[in-house]
């Protein structure tokens, strides 16, 4: 059974808040089939601990303001390397870039369907346009 639409809609609100907070590599996966305890995992990255905290705070405020939602639990606030916001039907992971590379959550959920976050671009790729030859514009300028 695929993720509930209300979970997808809430994750889209969270993704928009993360994007406005300058999070990078924002992706979400429908994990309802393999897990059954939640519908969607969203993952976003921050550049440093303060940025990770700010992204998490922005997501929490937006979900509370727009949808009246509060997380059931929050973990990782002290170290701010990996903050987990558990909303039961969906889980938000905000990770420091180094932690994200180390744990590579996308590898774990690669067989799950990626959720369209409605951000108007492929948010799972760093924001460097790629030319028709497959080389990013910054690489071709070197």
Identify the notable features of this structure and list them briefly.
alpha+beta; single chain; Beta Polymerase, domain 2; 6 helices; 142 residues; 6-stranded mixed beta sheet; disordered C terminus; 6 strands
Rounded to the nearest angstrom, the distance between the terminal CA atoms is: 48 Å
Major beta sheet, specifics? 6 strands, mixed
Q: What would you call the quaternary organization?
A: single chain
What's the CATH H-level superfamily name? Beta Polymerase, domain 2
**Tally of domains:** 1
Strand order of the largest sheet: 3-4-5-2-1-6
Rounded to the nearest angstrom, the radius of gyration is: 15 Å
CATH architecture group name: 2-Layer Sandwich
* SS element count, helices: 6
CATH topology: Beta Polymerase, domain 2
Organism: Bifidobacterium xylocopae
InterPro entries: Iojap/RsfS/C7orf30, NT_sf
Subcellular location: Cytoplasm
GO molecular function: ribosomal large subunit binding
Concise description?
The protein is of the alpha+beta class. The chain has a single domain, classed as Beta Polymerase, domain 2, CATH 3.30.460.
In terms of topology, how is this protein built?
Blueprint: H1 5-20, E1 24-30, H2 32-35, E2 40-46, H3 49-67, E3 73-75, E4 82-86, E5 90-96, H4 97-103, H5 105-108, E6 113-114, H6 137-140
Parallel strand pairs: 2-5
Antiparallel strand pairs: 1-2, 1-6, 3-4, 4-5
Can you put this structure into words, describing what you see?
The chain is of the alpha+beta class. The chain is 38% helix and 22% strand. The protein has one domain (5-115): Beta Polymerase, domain 2. It has a six-stranded mixed beta sheet with strand order 3-4-5-2-1-6. Mean pLDDT is 86; it is low at 123-142. It comes from Bifidobacterium xylocopae.
């Amino acid at each position: 059974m695929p993720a509930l639409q209300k979970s997808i809609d809430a994750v889209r609100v969270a993704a928009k808040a993360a994007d406005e907070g300058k999070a990078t590599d924002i992706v979400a996966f429908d994990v309802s089939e393999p897990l059954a305890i939640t519908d969607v995992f969203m993952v976003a990255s921050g550049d440093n601990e303060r940025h990770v905290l700010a992204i998490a705070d922005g997501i929490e405020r937006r979900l509370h303001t727009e949808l009246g939602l509060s997380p059931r639990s929050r973990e990782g606030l002290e170290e701010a390397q990996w903050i987990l916001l558990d909303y039961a039907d969906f889980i938000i992971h905000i990770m420091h870039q180094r932690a994200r590379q180390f744990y590579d959550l996308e590898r774990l959920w690669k067989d799950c369907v990626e959720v369209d976050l409605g951000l108007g671009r492929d948010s799972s790729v760093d924001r460097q346009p790629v030319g028709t030859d497959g080389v990013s514009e910054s690489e071709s300028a070197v």
